[in-house]
Amino acid sequence: MSDRQAIQTNSAPRAIGTYSQAIKVADTVWLSGQIPLDPASMELVGDDIGSQTRRVFDNLAAVAQAAGGGLEQMVKLNISLTDLGHFAQVNEVMAEYFSQPYPARACVGVASLPRDAMVEIEAIMVLD
User: Fold this and answer.
1) Could you state, in order of their start, the residue ranges of all structural domains in the chain?
2) Which mean pLDDT values do the consecutive 10-residue runs of the chain (128 residues) have?
């Protein structure tokens, strides 16, 4: 696939495994899951779901910008939560970052996430 391009920015946490921050093919960008890491320190940010979710959306926005887009171009989000009791709070924070029409979305409960994060979000973006 000759038009496959890895996206990388220092404005979001560097990959902590064998993956790219995002991959762009034509006008579609697949953004890897982001956890609430500070890009500079690579330390977990926040001890509550609200602050962790905001950091995750800020990280996703940075990767989206590096790929030539923004959160408004997200078409699909996959959210992983270690506590589905946080579902309503994540919705509240998401409403701060997105407006209608909202992206399609899945939300699943998981036993644990890297670095003991409470939330991880991955996304698909289509560029205009």
Assistant:
1) 4-126
2) 90 96 98 98 97 98 98 98 98 98 98 98 97
28-34: strand order across its sheet = 4-7, 22-25, 28-34, 119-126, 74-81, 104-109
SS3 call for 86: helix
Q: How far apart are CA 10 and CA 66, in angstroms?
A: 9
Helix axes of 49-66 and 87-97: crossing angle, nearest 10 degrees:
40
Length of the chain (residues): 128
Give this prediction's pTM.
0.97
Strand, helix or coil at 85? helix
CATH code reported for the domain at 4-126: 3.30.1330.40
Is 36 exposed, middle or buried, given 0-12, 13-18 or 19+ CB atoms closer than 10 A?
Answer: buried
Rounded Cα distance, 119 and 113, in Å: 7
DSSP 102: P
